[in-house]
Amino acid sequence: MSNETTERVRGWFTGRLPEQWQEQAPEVAVDREEVTVVLTIADVAAGESEVEQAEARAGRAKAFREETREARMAIAREAEHRFERKVSWGVRVGEREELWTHVSAPVMTRLRQPQRRVLDTLVESGVARSRSEALAWCVRLVGQHEGDWLAELRDAITHVDDVRAQGPAA
């Protein structure tokens, strides 16, 4: 997605979301199928143990999800109509992050035998139940270990989009 599209969507959500939902600016991610909005809400100061803190955060996230459901659904309908993408929601409370709804989009690909063998090994070893799940596992693993490189690549794409917009056909 172009930087301009992401900025438009982020700006719209920042203006549309109730202020009390915005401990920080919402984190908005956009692709061809989906807009994901992760809201940061106030952390919970509870208990002396990590377990108690984790459970307090889980409770705060659950309460926020239930209390804001109708309003979030109304905002999502508006955004889906405006941006022609599904809207998914999540929340961050302290160090805990939950995604409640998200699109699982099929992706078609052609793989040669060496790549299929990698997927089949993951299936045969029980790491994944299917080739599809094995491929998703591989993508998550690359995303975790190559995050900085992927972020740099996204920045480069944004720069190319900006330069292209300034070209003679603009």
Annotate the secondary structure layout.
Layout: H1 3-16, E1 27-30, E2 34-41, H2 50-83, E3 86-93, E4 96-99, H3 113-124, H4 131-145, H5 147-165
Parallel strand pairs: 2-3
Antiparallel strand pairs: 1-2, 3-4
Helix pairs in contact: 3-4
In quaternary terms, these chains amount to single chain
Q: Roughly how many Å is the radius of gyration?
A: 20 Å
Helix content: 55-70%
Give a short account of the largest sheet. Answer: 4 strands, mixed
Looking at the structure, what is the overall shape? globular
List the strand order in the largest sheet. Answer: 1-2-3-4
**What is the succession of H and E elements?**
HEEHEEHHH
What's the total count of β strands? 4
Mean pLDDT: 90
H/I helix tally: 5
Low-confidence stretches: none
How far the N terminus sits from the C terminus, by CA atoms, comes to 18 Å
Structure class: alpha+beta
Strand share of the residues? Answer: 5-15%
Structure report:
The two termini are 18 Å apart. Helix 3 packs across helix 4. This protein is α+β, with helices and mostly antiparallel strands. The longest helix has 34 residues, at 50-83. It has a four-stranded mixed beta sheet with strand order 1-2-3-4. Helix 2 links the parallel strand 2 and strand 3 (86-93). It has five helices and four strands. The protein has helices spanning 3-16, 50-83, 113-124, 131-145, 147-165; strands at residues 27-30, 34-41, 86-93, 96-99.
